[in-house]
Task: inverse folding
């Protein structure tokens, strides 16, 4: 592990929390001029996921920061024009197009040491590339079928070839049709100035560590590594040259690094009140979320129903710069249903109600219905606040 001099700056836990919120675009006035693409550049990565309850996660992320912007605006920002690309970062993510060169280290790694669990018939990879070159953008279905059977994991040869080409960087996803990736050749879809860059691994890692630090505001080695799923040793090798500043944070058991820009001015401004996707970059790292907010969260979508504690897609509620509860939402016609709500008590009811009513309006629901709340007093307060807020 890299040995650095003792940090010159000590932050309180509260300062670190507010720095993290501002870095994530959730403290202070939102940059509406930059829109969704501005959010994407600020965060560096927006995670994709198949689950759609109120909306898909990549829609919920800009909504949490910018409010009720049209959902078509979100889709257009990601997939209209050469502004973004999909690749493996924290998970499958939308990434700013200017960062294409800095994932070259990962593309090289896939080409050199790819471990695929699907067989690929001889010649099919080249056939897929040829078809894309001759016919233009296509889905896996159009290339010959996405699956062999109805099982989600049983990809067809065409799907395996397209995904392998995407991992290698020969192909990119240029859009979505019914949530299916639309593949095209990188040579057509990536701007020439980005396609022509080929930084070495060290340069790629320095850039991604620097970006992770800026997106986090302040983070430990593990936090920084997790953001783009780097290895700890990769962070160690470049962090001293990344431009991040060593700091210590009261109550944090490990050393940390901060974005120097985040330290220039005190983190002040208006706090956003909103529902957060469980895949939002503010909370996707569960140990960091617990350390900063004292909030333990787990996605239970893949947990058997009888073992769920907070619900299928429990969404943390952010208010006043703190995580004050969870809501497991659903939609029934024109009603947003809060199937299960967990809060820190009746005092959180106004914030939770505001978040619910705003989210309902955004997805076109005319009313909000509150179902299960463990504490009867909190339920009464929440129902009254929802009615007061217009839900």
Result:
């Amino acid at each position: 592990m890299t040995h650095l001099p003792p940090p010159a700056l000590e932050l309180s836990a509260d300062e670190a929390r507010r720095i993290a919120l501002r870095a994530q675009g959730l403290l202070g006035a939102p940059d509406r001029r930059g829109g969704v693409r501005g959010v994407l550049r600020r965060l560096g990565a927006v995670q994709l996921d198949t689950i759609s309850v109120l909306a898909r996660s990549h829609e919920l992320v800009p909504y949490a920061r910018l409010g009720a912007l049209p959902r078509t605006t979100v889709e257009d920002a990601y997939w209209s024009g050469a502004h973004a690309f999909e690749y493996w970062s924290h998970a499958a993510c939308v990434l700013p197009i200017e960062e294409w060169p800095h994932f070259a280290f990962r593309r090289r790694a896939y080409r050199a040491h790819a471990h695929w669990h699907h067989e690929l018939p001889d010649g099919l990879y080249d056939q897929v590339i040829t078809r894309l070159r001759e016919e233009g953008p296509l889905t896996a279905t159009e290339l010959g079928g996405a699956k062999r059977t109805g099982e989600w994991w049983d990809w067809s040869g065409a799907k395996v070839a397209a995904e392998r080409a995407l991992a290698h960087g020969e192909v990119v996803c240029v859009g979505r049709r019914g949530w299916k990736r639309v593949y095209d050749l990188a040579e057509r879809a990536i701007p020439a100035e980005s396609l022509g860059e080929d930084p070495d691994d060290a340069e790629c890692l320095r850039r991604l560590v620097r970006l992770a630090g800026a997106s986090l505001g302040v983070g430990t080695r593990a936090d920084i590594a997790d953001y783009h799923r780097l290895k700890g040793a990769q962070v160690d090798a470049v962090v001293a040259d990344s431009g991040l500043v060593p700091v210590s944070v009261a109550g944090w058991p490990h050393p940390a690094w901060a974005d120097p820009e985040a330290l220039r001015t005190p983190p002040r401004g208006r706090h956003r009140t909103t529902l957060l996707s469980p895949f939002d970059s503010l909370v996707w790292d569960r140990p960091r979320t617990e350390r900063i907010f004292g909030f333990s969260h787990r996605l239970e979508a893949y947990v058997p129903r009888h073992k769920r504690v907070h619900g299928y897609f429990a969404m943390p509620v952010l208010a006043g710069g703190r995580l004050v509860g969870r809501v497991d939402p659903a939609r029934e016609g024109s009603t947003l249903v809060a199937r299960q709500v967990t809060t820190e008590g009746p005092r959180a009811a106004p914030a939770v109600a505001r978040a619910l009513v705003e989210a309902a309006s955004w997805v076109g629901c005319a009313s909000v219905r509150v179902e299960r709340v463990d504490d009867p007093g909190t339920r009464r307060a929440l129902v009254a606040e929802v009615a007061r807020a217009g839900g």
The chain has 17 helices and 15 strands. The longest strand covers residues 322-332. The chain has a mean pLDDT of 92.
